[in-house]
Write a structure and sequence with these properties.
- By secondary structure, the protein is α+β, with helices and mostly antiparallel strands.
- It has 2 domains: 246 residues, Bira Bifunctional Protein, Domain 2 (BirA Bifunctional Protein, domain 2, 2-Layer Sandwich); 91 residues, Rossmann fold (3-Layer(aba) Sandwich).
- The chain has an 8-stranded mixed sheet with strand order 1-5-6-11-10-9-7-8, sandwiched between helices. Strands 13-12-14-15-16 form a 5-stranded mixed sheet, with helices on both faces. Strands 2-4-3 form a 3-stranded antiparallel sheet.
- Helix 12 links the parallel strand 12 and strand 13.
- Helix 1 packs antiparallel against helix 5 and helix 1 packs across helix 11.
- It is elongated, with a radius of gyration of 27 Å.
- 38% of the residues are buried.
- The structure holds adenosine monophosphate (AMP).
- Adenosine monophosphate binds next to strand 6, strand 10, strand 11 and helix 11.
């Protein structure tokens, strides 16, 4: 049997693959404008980084990591998310010794052994942003605005923003205890009961209807925020409103990672079925300390590139994918013509005109078919008689009009035509 991509993964092929590159670019562009610098971290890290940084009790760490020993017996894990790696890199390179906040963005593959379905893959792509070392509601609001800008710049109209605060180390313990007391009185399975003791907030995130039905009267974190968290949250809400960013307060939004404090948010799209989150993030004031660093209050988000693409598809923003691969297509007839065409193409590309040609010694008919498929606006047809006369036939593939151009002028002429 021939090989297939592993379960839960797929290949991005042309022409869709060009669009996914454009989506990555569009999501990252607003960050560059706000002074975020690009960071690239390894695709694998010490397993303990995620165990500690993401949290032992999370689904990610307990069930979904691609963990393997390397040949020297170290336990490594393919990164399931980007934040822990970014914090690790900041601490390792002492970036926090400079001006704060340290603003960074990344773009890359993430790996989670999830139940594969539409919109949920085992290998997917995120664009992420982190601002480390400042506790300032304007920073939380800035990141949310930049995320929203990325989506709108792609033409997406149906992305909703859900917002919540999870409190901090002052108010969260009392809330946690109140929630635990409530949850202990419910009819839940053994796994969920165990979760109540380890991470009760995550029970609120349980999507099963029989669990949700019992959660109606659960205490909400917004009702337990201390004065400082409340004021902080109000300021984030004020700045978002003043920026014209619509949001919905969602007191049940807890998110699946352990490190969040205060501001948490999710971008959702209703055209995606059950996997509706196109991005999410929040404040993680304690993470640096969990990784043996100094206190470094921080905020960040990760946007799902694959799901953003699906959202665009759902809104009909992708058209028919029919995009021109190149602007000009060469049709050389014979060996000498092929040699000459090869050089003309080099010159065209240097001059900024994208160009391809028929390879494999195709005849006129086969080569013209290739020209049509390439989406090029112009074909350059070069036969033996043209070579002898130092000319080339330039065929406009839209109008079928053909003109003869001296070889010495063809680059300039085409440059003028394709602009
Ligand atoms: P998270 O790191 O879980 O907060 O995820 C951030 C974003 O990444 C989500 O909102 C999704 O858009 C995307 N994402 C997370 N997990 C997957 C997955 N298994 N497949 C595709 N996209 C994902």
């Amino acid at each position: 049997m021939s090989f297939q991509a592993p379960k839960g993964t797929f290949d991005w092929l042309p022409p869709r693959s060009e669009r996914i590159l454009a989506v990555r670019e569009a999501l990252a562009a607003p960050l560059r404008e706000a002074g975020y610098g690009y960071i690239e971290t390894p695709v694998f890290e010490d397993t303990q980084l995620f165990a500690r940084g993401v949290g032992e009790s999370t689904d990610i760490v307990s069930k979904e990591m691609y963990t393997f020993p390397d040949k020297a017996g170290r336990s490594l894990t393919l990164r399931p998310e980007g934040t822990a790696s970014v914090v690790r890199a900041v601490l390792q390179h002492n970036l926090h010794a400079g001006q704060l906040p340290v603003k960074l963005w990344y773009s890359g593959s993430q790996f989670r052994y999830e139940r594969a379905q539409k919109g949920r893959y085992r290998h997917f792509w995120q664009v992420g942003a982190e601002a480390l070392g400042a506790e300032d509601p304007a920073l939380d609001a800035e990141l949310i605005v930049l995320g929203a800008r990325g989506f709108t710049s792609l033409g997406l109209e149906n992305v909703r923003l859900l917002l919540n605060s999870l409190g901090d180390k002052t108010c969260r313990p009392a809330y946690r205890a109140a929630l635990q007391e409530f949850l202990r009185g419910l009819d839940l399975d053994a796994d969920t009961k165990a979760r109540i003791e380890i991470n009760p907030l995550r029970v609120l995130d349980d999507k099963r209807p029989e669990v949700q039905a019992q959660l109606t009267g659960a205490p909400l974190v917004v009702d337990h925020l201390c004065a400082a968290c409340k004021a902080y949250h109000e300021e984030v809400r004020f700045l978002l409103t003043a920026s014209g960013i619509a949001f919905e307060d969602d007191p049940r939004l807890v998110r699946g990672l352990d490190y969040y404090t205060r501001t948490t948010f999710e971008f959702v799209h209703d055209g995606l079925g059950s996997q509706s989150a196109v991005g999410g993030g929040g404040r993680y004031d304690g993470l640096s300390e969990m990784l043996d660093g100094p206190p470094l209050p921080s905020v960040g988000w990760a946007l799902g590139v694959d799901r953003t693409f699906l959202a665009m598809e759902a809104e009909g923003l992708l058209g028919d994918h029919a995009q021109a691969r190149v602007q000009v297509y060469g049709v050389p007839l014979g060996d000498e013509a092929r040699r000459r065409m090869f050089l003309i193409l080099n010159d065209l590309r240097v001059a900024g005109v994208s160009a391809d040609m028929a390879f494999g010694g195709k005849g006129l008919k086969g080569a013209m078919k290739g020209a049509g498929r390439s989406g090029a606006g112009f074909a350059l047809i070069l036969g033996e008689r043209d070579l002898a006369a130092e000319v080339v036939q330039v065929k406009n593939l839209t109008t079928a009009e053909q003109t003869e151009v001296p070889l010495a002028q063809v680059v300039d002429v085409l440059k003028g035509k394709v602009q």
